[in-house]
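Design review, sub-item: ligand-bound model
Attendees: FS, YL, KQ
YL presented the inputs for the FE2/S2 (inorganic) cluster complex:
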Amino acid sequence: MTMDSGRRAFLRWATAIGGFLSLLFAGVPAARAFLSPAFRRTREEKWIRLGEVDQFDPEVPTKVDFVDTVKDAWVETRRLRSVWIYTEDGETFRVYNGRCTHLGCNYFLDEDKGVFQCPCHTGFFDLKTGAVLGGPPPRPLDTLDVKIEDGILYARYQDFHLGVSDKAAV
Ligand code: FES
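KQ shared the predicted structure:
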């Protein structure tokens, strides 16, 4: 090996190592910045304005639909959600997530029978308590946290795992 070819080999190695280190130092923070939203899971509070408390008649369930915006990493999705509001006295309120606890279908008010009915697999729920009266749902309707501010009723919207007996937030 001549002195020249030895120097050239050394320079080639030095360049390769330098390039690798540059890539490492510049690439790792860039990759982390790019990927971190994918690993970031935030559960933000969503208080939904449902309306003035005196608009809800006692013992008459009221449905409120709204658009829920969900951010998953870089993807923002909008989905139609609903809640059912029930009050016996116009002062205290139960607000149910509008998804059936079996597989998530939207249930409806069956006025003739005085129950909530899920059309997908014929599940029935009690209006006052959300208890399962019949069919496959494994747990009562999911109640949401509520608050009243300046005469306005709000519910903290959350989805819960479906098809299981425990109520666990998604
Ligand atoms: S989804 Fe409601 S009973 Fe199956």
